[in-house]
Amino acid sequence: MADLLGNSKQELLLGNEAITRGLFEAGVKFASTYPGTPSSEVGNLLEELSERAGMYFEFSSNEKTAVEVSAAAASSGVRSFVFMKHVGLNVAADPLMTLAYAGVRAGMLVMSADDPSAHSSQNEQDNRYYATLALIPMVEPSNPQEAKDFVAAAYEVSEKLGLPVLYRTTTRVNHARGIVTFGKLRTDTPLKGHFEKDDPHFVNIPAFAIHNRVRLLEKNKQALALSETSPLNRVEGSSDVGIITSGVSYNYVKEYVAGVSILKLGFTNPIPEQKTADFIRGKKFVIVVEELEPYLEDQVLRICAQHNLNVLVHGKRDGVLPREWEFSPDTMQRLKDLVAIKPAPVPMPKASVTLPGRPPSLCAGCPHRGMYAAVKKAVDKTPVVYCSDIGCYTLGVQPPFHTADFIICMGGGAGAAGGFAQVTDQKPIAFIGDSTFFHSGVPPLTNALFNHHNIIMVILDNRTTAMTGHQPNPGTGRHFGGVNTEAVDIASIVKGLGVQFIRTVNPYDVKNCVAVMKDALVFDGVAVVISKCPCPLLLRKEKRLEKKTCVVDKDKCIKCYTCLKMIACPALIKRPDGTVETDPTQCIGCGMCASVCPKEAIGVRQ
Description:
The structure is a single chain. This protein is an alpha/beta fold. It has 21 helices and 27 strands. A 7-stranded mixed beta sheet has the order 3-2-4-5-7-6-13, with helices on both faces. Strand 22, helix 18 and strand 23 form a beta-alpha-beta unit. Helix 3 runs parallel beside helix 4 and helix 14 packs across helix 18. The protein is globular and about 85 Å long.
């Protein structure tokens, strides 16, 4: 990995690495996040580098809290950076909307890492609309070099206006690689500040908020003036056909579209109105190339109407370009009837052998397998609704478990369980991870107690925030950046809320888990089962995984395949002759399969 605090002239960087270097070059001294792909690498890097950089960094319990702590820093005169994946901004929207009214005293960026094509997300929402909703400026880089350079430029905008700035990226910007030229590290910004009290600005009761709204609208006009002259917005080439684009879409246009003039927008809210009108004027037609929603296109259509520009605008509204999914070289082929298009790369010839699909699945030895197997065994024919959540355990939707009937958002399964309890005769079982429990699981659990919802909450505590890269959470304690804290005990929180039925189980002991789940199913009220076992990938990464292997005694095995049906571990192999054995390259010796074998034909060896 490149030394992001070094003095290299150039490095090959991932977009997220470039953004991290940009923070150091901008002199950012406070950062916060709740991890979420495609933004996760920034947090992993800051966990490692923030202390060296003289920066405070934290993994907050959720995105709302992350915005609030960074807002406090920026309001005290310390440059701050808060970042999250796109759906995280939904959680953070509450403070963000009013923070725009209050303003900030030092620069503050809010990075939303959007995910067109939903590579690792439950939706494709286009967070550019949050900038217009909050009336805050927005900056969008297109490649790793801009991802670094635009950070400092966005802080200048933030401090000129006294407003937070939405720094919007997408998966292909966060995860692209490119040569990045470094600038100087900035060391003159303060690590500590002082909050000067100012109730009319920072205490947005209605009497103050109505005036702050007017002030915010005036700042929006100032932002428009900055956008008009910003070097982040530029015109390339000369032609009577124009393309207006931003973000990663610019790269596709630049590489595959020929003979056009391009208005490349990096400062996208407010859109530079006069610059855009001047660009459009005299063109035969313009094409707006952007992923997801017609955000820029609608602005362009408005500008044409208000400036009496009788120029045809192509894009999503007339069906030339799609509103779904991320773009690709193939997408540019849809413009071939309008402009000259360079041929897309020739795809590799298809293999003569059709390989089977490989859907994502829980890892070998994942403790969630044991808990899901136990739940299914305990439930048997009891009518239930499995309310799942966002994390590794979402993969319980796959066979043979089928333990995800309803998923909407972080903590949403736990909340929905209460609704199912009231309107159906099915027993709701809500699965939620340890990090997600701290993020948004406590309020729905409290709600279930308050309203006497007859639900089971299964907290899958694998001692880390696994799916996004093994970041710490309150349940693990913090041990980086010079800060050391003890783990927050989930069982103590649950008991403190007043839950009467609390059991902590080891999911590798499937038989015991079955017995506990049977008790939970007949309990009248809120039952909480905590499945507590570390993620084996984390143990392997930390070199704490014991070397053990499960071995099948073929003399005892009756080929009932209970182990395959219940656990479905990828380390279990059914041979062509019908025998079962384990793959020692995958098996971690957890013993889940041994726990369910009716003939005790599977043993664990050191």
